[in-house]
Amino acid sequence: MIEVNQLTKRYGSLTAVDGVSFKVDAGEVLGFLGPNGAGKSTTMKMIAGFLAPTSGRVSVCGHDVVDEPIAAKSVMGYLPEGAPSYAEMTVAAFLEFIADVRGLTGADRRGRFDDVVGRLALGRVLDQPIETLSKGYKRRVGLAQAILHDPKVLILDEPTDGLDPNQKHEVRSLIDAMARDKIIIISTHILEEVDAVCTRAIIIANGKILADDTPEHLEARTPSGRLEDVFRSITLGTAAHA
Amino acid sequence: MRNVAIVFRRELASYFATPLAFVFIVIFLVLAGAFAFYLGNFFERGQADLTPFFTFHPWLYLFLIPALSMRLWAEERKSGSLELLMTLPITLWQAVLGKFAAAWAFAGLALLLTFPIWITVNYLGDPDNGAILAAYIGSFLMAGGFLAVGACLSATTRNQVIAFIVTVVVCFAFLLSGLPMVLGLFQGWAPQVLVDAIASFSFLTHFNAIAKGVIDLKDLVFFAALIAAWLSANAIVLDMKKAD
Hints:
By secondary structure, chain A is an alpha/beta fold.
């Protein structure tokens, strides 16, 4: 379970995330929606333990991210925005490095490695330096790195950004397949994605949670029944200048 | 310790994944040789020692070590891989130590590859090999000092050029503080304690002491403390400036 309690991040006078609280249980796929600059990425960076919150707490599977960072990071897989990796390394060397850090050994390591390479169709590019890959492949390498240790918690910041429709579909199937016993948080501004994979959506703007509900309930809020209209009516009301 | 080793291996491998390792080692060896033979008059002196070789190391390091250290953290910042590294289950200190150790080992490798000149001097005469070993150790320690400065300054920016220039300037100050002309500026008016303090911060003073063949505890402590201090600053800078 992830518990986020009154999470706040300030940069000088700017409040990027403002008193955000929510809980996510295993089996849930939570979609983070919001305009650019709404605080989605900042919230995810704090959950993943990269940024220290100004105030508030994040607990991942019972481990406080600030007090027990290593324990919390061990159960999480995180895909940062833009899927950064080490450009000069080959895909295989990069994933071996991640496997080392995650403490995978023996048959388990081999099995996880092959499973992830198969799922994300990386077999063909294993010996290529990451910098020579297309955007879609780089994103898949980032995803592979995040799921390599079969984490209980997955934090994916815009996992399908830059992928073509087929690749998007594959990533969504991947998330679906993993969803049953995991906690997955994804951020996106592709609304159809929320319909496709999320069991719950949080709409965030100006650092505040404006809605937290199932996609179906959110859609029921407008006569048209379209998530896009709900998103516009909720976010434009308070973030017209954003 | 296991995590330090993992970071170390990845970092060291990344030097060899690009032409950086090759270019650095070749330029280091060519310059080290050229300085020793042409500027240091290695042959003409007619003495079987490596003084002309080691004398130029501080000046060689002044430009080459910042070129090695500038990418350490600035590149991680720029590419965003810092975020990845800092969300893996390793501590900040393990990352700082692993990356520094890799850069230092690489500099050590470049230094080791100067061994032909050691063989040459033994072929030509009968040098004091103990003194030469001490000078090698001193040179390696000094490289570590330069690298620790560079690692910390690299963490302050995402621009490698800025990291390079600032590191050269700071290292230059550390070198110069032992020269008579700098100390002369202070000697007239400042208390002797201050002059000694400035002189004691000099890489040159400590390196030259070791290069004479005497490994004194106080010189070892100087470099160890220097490296520890700059790496601590490195960790603090990273922790404070993660977001930018």
